[in-house]
Amino acid sequence: MRALAILCLLALVACAPAKKPSFDAADANKDGKISLQEFKNLFKSSAQDKAEEQFNRYDANRDGLFDGSEYDLWNQVGSDDSLRQW
């Protein structure tokens, strides 16, 4: 019975979606903003062009940086998990 419970738990963990990086984790230099390069670091090397497109699309104030609300919006509606590294 215990072995069955462990197997069920392992199956649930294996099927769970990968955790997306938080804003703080993506903000490598801890300046409170995410630069284009920090954003690109979240993506596979083959998806760097797509990363830049998405960054430019969701950089609402066009300052070349993501603040928390811009990152959250991208993370909720604009992200394509197949391009990410995690």
UniProtKB/TrEMBL annotation:
Q: Where is the EF-hand domain?
A: 23-49
Name the record gives this protein: EF-hand domain-containing protein
What InterPro entries does the record point to? EF-hand-dom_pair (IPR011992), EF_Hand_1_Ca_BS (IPR018247), EF_hand_dom (IPR002048)
Output the PROSITE patterns linked to this UniProt entry: EF_HAND_1, EF_HAND_2, PROKAR_LIPOPROTEIN
Q: Please name the SUPFAM superfamilies in this protein's record.
A: EF-hand
Q: Keywords in alphabetical order, please.
A: Signal
Q: Which Gene Ontology molecular function entries are recorded, alphabetically?
A: calcium ion binding
How far does the signal peptide extend, from start to end residue?
1-18
